Amino acid sequence: xxxxxxxxxxxxxxxxxxxxxxxxxxxxxxxxxxxxxxxxxxxxxxxxxxxxxxxxxxxxxxxxxxxxxxxxxxxxxxxxxxxxxxxxxxxxxxxxxxxxxxxxxxxxxxxxxxxxxxxxxxxxxxxxxxxxxxxxxxxxxxxxxxxxxxxxxxxxxxxxxxxxxxxxxxxxxxxxxxxxxxxxxxxxxxxxxxxxxxxxxxxxxxxxxxxxxxxxxxxxxxxxxxxxxxxxxxxxxxxxxxxxxxxxxxxxxxxxxxxxxxxxxxxxxxxxxxxxxxxxxxxx
Length: 284
Prior knowledge:
By secondary structure, the protein is α+β, with helices and mostly antiparallel strands. The protein has a domain at 139-282: endopeptidase fold (from Nostoc punctiforme). It is 52% helix and 12% strand. The chain is built from six helices and eight strands. The chain has helices at residues 17-40, 57-137, 144-160, 168-179, 197-206, 216-219; strands at 184-185, 194-195, 224-226, 236-239, 247-253, 256-262, 266-271, 279-282. Strands 3-8-4-5-6-7 form a six-stranded antiparallel sheet. Strands 1-2 form a two-stranded parallel sheet. α4 (168-179) crosses α5. It is rod-shaped and about 135 Å long. Residues 33-37 and 132-163 have low confidence and may be disordered.
């Protein structure tokens, strides 16, 4: 016997033909299917490479910084705006205060100017009366006209004492003007507590139903011209020329008159010698 006769054979047993054929057919079918699928499938596209930029931590930080800077700028702008508004308000208040002070100053200046003008006008009136009185009483070398004026003035003083009693309407006029003595003088005044010269005369004659003109110039020609030596109570005295008189009063008898003289004296009762008139006119 061979020395290997009892050693089992290590050769693999042969597969049966049917199994081998089946396996071969399956393998072939699989390979053919893969081949056919590979041939029939679409061509593979080139791979697309896309870079995705991933956010980093610095992106969020820069956004926060930008927002903070914008907020800071807005606060600064608001502060600047408020400061401008405050400055504008302060300037407006300062301008208003200055304008008010200027208005007060102008008002005071106007008031002083009006007072000065009034004082000047009164001074001019007194001066004109003084000049007229001086002209009437000054001697002119014995001329007939000056002699007549002097004679008239002297005789009026003597005759006036005998004509001191008023009757009828004249008495009412005299009583009215005497009742106003002490009232104030106001240019353009027509009563009841302040008068100018022609306003007082007009009101006095209105009490007896006589409507005189308003101004002294017209009142000096409202009736019959009479001599100063023949005065009667109720006659209208005037200073200046007839038709251009600058002052009037009422003769009340006894060599006296009542008139609204000026703002310093008001309505007074004075002697004819205090301010001799230029002429007289009789209405009643």
